[in-house]
Amino acid sequence: MFEARLVKGSLLKNVLDAIKDLLKQASWDCADSGIQLQAMDSSHVSLVSVNLKAEGFDKYRCDRNLIMGMDLSSMSKILKCAANDDIITMKAQDNADTVTFMFESPNQEKVSDYEMKLMNLDQEHLGIPETQYACVVKMPSAEFARICRDLSNFGESICIACTKEGIKFYAAGDIGTANIKLAQTTSVDKEDAVIIDLQEPVTLTFSCHYLNMFIKATPLSQQVSLSMSPDVPLVVEYTIHDLGHIQYFLAPKIGENDS
Amino acid sequence: MFEARLVKGSLLKNVLDAIKDLLKQASWDCADSGIQLQAMDSSHVSLVSVNLKAEGFDKYRCDRNLIMGMDLSSMSKILKCAANDDIITMKAQDNADTVTFMFESPNQEKVSDYEMKLMNLDQEHLGIPETQYACVVKMPSAEFARICRDLSNFGESICIACTKEGIKFYAAGDIGTANIKLAQTTSVDKEDAVIIDLQEPVTLTFSCHYLNMFIKATPLSQQVSLSMSPDVPLVVEYTIHDLGHIQYFLAPKIGENDS
Amino acid sequence: MFEARLVKGSLLKNVLDAIKDLLKQASWDCADSGIQLQAMDSSHVSLVSVNLKAEGFDKYRCDRNLIMGMDLSSMSKILKCAANDDIITMKAQDNADTVTFMFESPNQEKVSDYEMKLMNLDQEHLGIPETQYACVVKMPSAEFARICRDLSNFGESICIACTKEGIKFYAAGDIGTANIKLAQTTSVDKEDAVIIDLQEPVTLTFSCHYLNMFIKATPLSQQVSLSMSPDVPLVVEYTIHDLGHIQYFLAPKIGENDS
Amino acid sequence: YPVKGRKTKQREETTAVVILECEDGRMLLVQRPKGGLLASLWEFPHIALTEESEEHWEKTVGGQVTELFGVLESDAASRTFIADVTHIFSHIRQTYRVYKIRVASERGVCWPERYQGGQWMTREQFLSSATSTAMKKVLKAVEAQEGKSKDKKSKKSSADQPSKKQKTISQFFSTVAKK
Amino acid sequence: YPVKGRKTKQREETTAVVILECEDGRMLLVQRPKGGLLASLWEFPHIALTEESEEHWEKTVGGQVTELFGVLESDAASRTFIADVTHIFSHIRQTYRVYKIRVASERGVCWPERYQGGQWMTREQFLSSATSTAMKKVLKAVEAQEGKSKDKKSKKSSADQPSKKQKTISQFFSTVAKK
Amino acid sequence: YPVKGRKTKQREETTAVVILECEDGRMLLVQRPKGGLLASLWEFPHIALTEESEEHWEKTVGGQVTELFGVLESDAASRTFIADVTHIFSHIRQTYRVYKIRVASERGVCWPERYQGGQWMTREQFLSSATSTAMKKVLKAVEAQEGKSKDKKSKKSSADQPSKKQKTISQFFSTVAKK
């Protein structure tokens, strides 16, 4: 028997919005410690990793480890039927081939059950090595989203350069070039600040296409963290308050000669 | 001479929004007692009936009975030109082939006249028998609209089942099944409550397509009433405060063997 | 060296929104006194004239007269990357073939540079004679926009008739006729009033297509002024507070026999 | 030696059914008269096949569709035969010979007066209209032929509509004289 | 016996007018020079028919449209004749032989230098541009031919535009040297 | 008289590359195996041209595309030759004979098992996928042929991507057994 109840159901809606454009289908790994999902997008350029801790749920029970393969667009359609203040419960029997989503209105007067078929997905699991990144930047997630969107108008790639002074985003295309500089903030009031933890300066180039997928997670957190090292995938991480996090890994674009 | 003046002109805009997708053309029957409209949609599965009482208008005069056939999409285009706080007056001469809509801004500084050709429509009038329904449910109109919209994602039909405990909506399709239960509310504070008046339990199936047309009337009233009896059309009724009501009748889908 | 700095950068965004649908490309003439732009739309029916005074900028320097030909849709794409509260600076070297737009966030923590190629445009300059118009109407810009939009649903042309009592807008088409009258306001509280300065009554007909382009300037000013004389282009003028104005000239439609 | 007559408890009938599809994919449906069998239901145009010999059927369909429904001869000639669909009404074993014609334009297409009306419907409009099970079978045959009836869709309709039939409102309320 | 010459108070002229329509339905309009008759108005491409004999007209149109307007020969060959449209200017009785050519691509299409410019316009853009009554007649002829000029539309334009002609702004303001 | 052998420092190879384009313009890309040269990169379907004589190549392409990729014979027959694209890998001078086939439907199209998968991609999806420079050259050849590679676009890509190559994530992280 698996059961996970989340009073703040809108968080689960947001998690799905953050991954459903990147992944068509994915497996949710349910264990005693919580729920995990890891999958590459279909072109194998990026990797998504979602982690929801058991303690983050208002009720959590997982008698046996369970892998639930789901069509994420169907799951998203179902979650769209939940109101933002609904309590959401996911339930499955131990050897079930279906999962049930239950939505309860706060006053308990409306209760909805949605039952969905599970799928057998053959997905590989990648090991992500512990890495000491050369540079970790924390910044407002809305600012990062805006920058990715703005620069996508200029070219297919965004170049990110990080130094002690700040972080720079660069794009070029047929209408001209664009250059955005964010200075490290001196006053460090948590959510709003730009904070740079730098071992050595890094400059890397990434495809706009994927960055624009990642920023769908913006509603989950006011802050985003970017971790970079030379010639290594970028990590874009959003914390889900009290519940877990979602991490996106993106392979860089590397010059023919650098590689 | 026919003249009907409505200070709260937005009501007439809302009435038109509620019927214009279902009916392309329709006749407004103007009499001393008020204005009525009755028409079936083009596939003859549903029937709309609008009733606007003479007393509901701020000025009402109808010297001779008058049938005004109108193209509802043209009428809708004209009403869209009225601001929400405009006073709307409909006017027609006794044997006229045009109708005039006059919009006055509250401060009387802007006055607009729109003249539209009338049409000769050959529409039949259906007699609706007085029926004692097995079950009448009153519920918030926004909740009903949301349920119809949500379940349309799951299948072409919605099954409505009403019992003493509450009302259940059910749909099934290729992504799974959906089941929404509303409990009868105990605290009966008028607008917000779910109130069930039940003689006997009823279960009927209806096409989503038409229900989704009916919920266009939601802005007219905070409450909607659903009346059902076995093997008889559903009645979906919205009260237009102080002015009248709009009723939709929808033929059920019936199993080959039940009929 | 040319440099123009505008603390209220959103004004420049609005100016561009007001002209970019009418003009694909245009030249900005920069001189000591300020920046000007004049151009006809591609079908030569209307003329746009923008005037931004040097004093209106927070910093303004123009060592030598400069003509900067720009692709307005590219310029618009760049300005869309500026936040509404950003400070915008335009910069160009004396013989440069590029222009730089710099956006600074109010707290100076984000600085963006966008560089765009200039174009050599071969545009003619029309002399606009000083005219004493038979009739000048000031009215709320939002009201004018609404009237143009509403009447576009009825026909391809709008007829504007101005008398001592007020201004009338008329359109006719296949769904009927529309007639909007605005009375001159007695209480003359600046922004909201309809004020008519009339030498003689005027009636002229204009294409909706162009009027609907002009009303894109509505966010620039709460008031619009319409100047008309018989058989002469209409002038639609929006004042840009403390900075300058934008004027649209529109050739009338004239009966074969009147001309 | 007397020839022995075929005994048929069920009467057998064959009728041509023509799917007229216009450019945007919508299909012509006509609404049956108010009285009689299948009153007021929507159906695809029918062409009676009264000729004895099957050889003449093709010609009948081509001619009638032109004459009764105003289809251009050039369009009528390009019809394709889809399938034979069989449906059993109480005492009739009805075979529908289903044809499909793409018409270049809706304009000019008409229908006999005995019908209450005609309408170009999308697949979805058709499915949510009042129609007979037989006509639904016909549509299924067309879609099967065209490979359109994806597994998904057929699964859906089976799960969703366990042979529920949309009624018309006029089966419940009757016409009255206007006051 | 002297042959009696035809007396023509009105001079008669025939010119070919070609509607070049690109894939998305827009049509090529070119803008006349600033001086002379119909100055600065937009018109469909004209091909002068100077040949005496009508037999050669077809060939002239095919050749000139290729040469002057850069239409591909394959496209030019597929032209269709629409109608003859007659318009009376003060002393000229002008006949327009209207042809239509669908060009596969706008690319490559050009126009003679004497024109101020050219533009691919939608029907609506054309109607709200400065153009002559004659050219509007030509468009009407094309639409009538194509059955596009629905009753509605024609009713509309008659109600809406009782022969009002869009002026150009350059008819009012004159070019000045830049300061 | 001994025939002198051709000395080729660089090995020369010719392979057919087939752009399968479906109705909506998307193209089939297949993903190479995880090991070896160009591991995990996406490429257009390749057909080995092992035959000696060029005359047989056409036939090979037609046959293999049907057999290996499930293209209908009628579609395969309608292929067009686009261009020869040459790319130099360390010791191989590779010539790609590029063909294009429009397939009527994606359904039925498949790919050999050695590929990790296949996907119908838009131009943009392809450009942002992990692919080789050689395949980008192939796309450019197709677009040049079709006149699609407008000046703008090519300017853009040159400014934007000074030969930066998109890596795949699996080049950095390795598969592990599930806990």
Describe it.
Chains A, B, C: Belongs to the PCNA family. The complex is a heterohexamer, with three copies of chain A (259 residues) and three copies of chain D (179 residues). With 259 residues, chain A is mostly beta strands. Chain A has four helices and 20 strands. Chain A has a nine-stranded antiparallel beta sheet. Chain A has a five-stranded antiparallel beta sheet with strand order 5-1-7-8-9, with helices on one face. A four-stranded antiparallel beta sheet of chain A has the order 14-13-12-16. In chain D, 26% of the residues lie in helices and 30% in strands. At the B-D interface, strand 10, strand 13, helix 4 and strand 20 of B face strand 7, helix 3, helix 5, strand 8 and strand 9 of D. Strand 20 of chain C pairs antiparallel with strand 8 (164-166) of chain E.
- Low-confidence segments of chain D: 1-8, 148-162
Number of strands of chain D: 9
CATH topology call of the largest domain in chain A:
Proliferating Cell Nuclear Antigen
Radius of gyration based on Cα positions of chain D: 18 Å
Largest interface: pair, residues per side: B-D, 39 and 38 residues
Q: Mind describing the biggest β-sheet of chain A? A: 9 strands, antiparallel
Short description:
Chain A has helices at about 10-20, 70-80, 140-150, 210-215; strands spanning about 1-5, 25-30, 35-40, 45-55, 60, 65-70, 85-90, 100-105, 110-115, 125, 135-140, 155-160, 165-175, 175-185, 195-200, 200-205, 225-230, 235-240, 245-250, 255.
